[in-house]
Amino acid sequence: MQDAADWRKAMKLEGHVNSKVKRIIDELISNLARRDLLFFIDDTESMKEHSAQIEVSFQTLAYIAKSIDPDDLELSFVSKPRNIFKSRKTSPLIEELRQHLNKHMSVKGRIESSLSTLINEKIMRRLPLPIPLLGQVPPWSKPITIFVFTDGKWGEGVRPGNGLTEPISKVMREMKKRGLNRTHVMFQFLRFGDDEEGREHLVYLDNFGKDDKWDIVDTRDINGDVYSMFLAALTEHNDINNDQLHD
Questions:
Q1: SUPFAM superfamilies attached here (predicted)?
Q2: Between the CA of residue 161 and those of 2, 164, 224, what are the distances in Å?
Q3: Distance CA 61, CA 95 (A)
């Protein structure tokens, strides 16, 4: 993440750019072109201590993301999942995030219900239907990756994954029903902090769907490799090569 953050600063200042990092970024842009990218920020009470890191991480990832997504980048929050802020430029989204972190980082809520709302009202409506008679997915339909910023602290004594598998399963079933590729919708959970119970929730989600060969979830530490964050579970190699949370 630090290399990517340095790359962003260098690009904005038109200074020296690390050639290795630039090559990796260019490869991401080439491989993931025309993919919608949505950032879903867990702004519940426990995430308040990570406010500064949330802002820096979003700035870095959003700057890369705008080169991948030819349309607007999208930003939403657990406290208000029905509100999606959109912009082609990162500055308005960064300002929206900054104001939100300053004013609303003390709410209590459940990420399960918020993710369900986001999926039901925003994600499911984007899933394309096959073209009548042809049975093919429209070529203009765009896949999407949802980046979820969270610490995994979703309540003590709750079941593994805290019920997030239920709304994610709904997406999986609908994708199969419509004949969509497994990678049409991907969830990338990015972990903040070092809460052990939170880690266990995220590890459970990371393993969810693998037995059915329909894995659409990946989990990473926010300080980890940015290249892998963007690839999510798009490739089996990337999803397996994830030791940060599983150690």
A1: vWA-like
A2: 29, 6, 21
A3: 15
Sort 40 into a burial class: Cβ within 10 Å, 0-12 / 13-18 / 19+: buried
Backbone φ, ψ for residue 135 (5° rounding): 70, 15
The CATH number linked to 123 is: 3.40.50.410
Given a cut of 80, is residue 22 above it in pLDDT? Answer: no
- For the chain, the domain total comes to 1
Q: Using the Cα atoms of residue 152, residue 155, residue 158 and residue 163 in order, give the sign of their dihedral.
A: negative
In a domain, 38, yes or no: yes
Whether residue 136 is contained in a domain is answered as no
pLDDT, tens digit, 9 for 90 and up, residues 107-154? 666 788 999 999 999 999 999 987 766 667 777 788 999 999 999 998
Q: Which amino acid is at 89?
A: K
Output the CA–CA distances (angstroms, integers) from residue 156 to 148, 162, 230, in the order listed: 20, 10, 30
Residues 6+ apart with CB under 8 A from 194: none
What does the block give as tokens for 224?
Answer: 């980890």
Give dist(CA 15, CA 28) in Å, integer.
21
**Boundaries of domain holding 95:** 2-11+19-127+141-240
